[in-house]
Design brief:
Elements (H helix, E strand, L loop, with lengths): L22 H4 L2 H19 L6 H12 L5 H7 L4 H13 L3 E5 L7 E5 L1 H22 L9 H17 L5
Antiparallel strand pairs: 1-2
C-alpha cells in the first residue's frame, strides 16, 4: 500500500511548534531591544491606553514640563526626529490635547501648550503608565540594579554609537 501524498500541511492531530529563536539572535542586543519594545507596546495598549501612544504621551509630558517651548526643541527631549514630532503635534492638536501657536518672533516655530483636556488626559494616563512602569520594573530579579537608569544609559550609549561614522 502506498503512502499518502504529503501536502505540506500539518496533520490535524499534531500541534504546530513555534521554534525557539536561534542562538545568534539571542546574543544580539538589537533583538533583545526589539523584543522589549514589542512587549512594551503590547503592555501599553492593554494596561495604559489603546489610543494615546507612548510617543504622544511623551510629547504631552514634555509640553507639561516645558510649556511654551517650540516643537522642534522638544523633539530631542522625547527622542523623536522633527518631522515625526510635527506630525504627532498636529494629531494631538486635532484631538484637542495641545495648542500650537506661531512664535511671535518666527512664524515657522510652533509653540506648544496643553489644553485643559490635555492636562486631564495626561493626568489620567500618567497614573496608569506609572502602574505599568512599576509592574515592568519590579519583578524581583534585578536586585539592586536601577533598571530604568540602565535602559536610559544603554539608550545614550547606543545613540552615541549610531552617530559615529565608522566602528573601530
Amino acid at each position: 500500500m502506498a503512502e499518502p501524498a504529503r501536502t505540506g500541511r500539518h496533520r490535524e492531530d499534531t500541534a504546530a511548534v513555534t521554534p525557539a529563536p536561534p542562538s545568534d539572535l539571542l546574543a544580539a542586543p538589537g533583538y533583545g531591544a526589539r523584543r522589549l519594545y514589542q512587549a512594551y507596546l503590547a503592555a501599553w495598549n492593554r494596561h495604559v491606553d489603546p489610543v494615546l501612544t507612548g510617543p504622544q504621551f511623551a510629547v504631552l509630558s514634555a509640553v507639561r514640563a516645558y510649556p511654551g517651548s517650540d516643537q522642534s526643541s522638544l523633539a530631542g527631549a522625547v527622542a523623536l526626529d522633527t518631522s515625526t514630532m510635527a506630525d504627532l503635534c498636529r494629531r494631538l492638536e486635532r484631538r484637542g490635547l495641545i495648542r500650537r501657536v506661531e512664535s511671535p518672533h518666527d512664524a515657522r516655530r510652533k509653540l506648544l501648550s496643553l489644553t485643559d483636556e490635555g492636562k486631564t488626559t495626561l493626568s489620567q494616563v500618567n497614573r496608569r503608565a506609572r502602574r505599568l512602569d512599576k509592574a515592568l520594573l519590579d519583578d524581583g530579579t534585578a536586585g539592586d540594579i536601577d533598571t530604568a537608569a540602565l535602559l536610559n544609559a544603554l539608550g545614550t550609549h547606543w545613540e552615541r554609537i549610531a552617530s559615529v561614522e565608522k566602528l573601530r
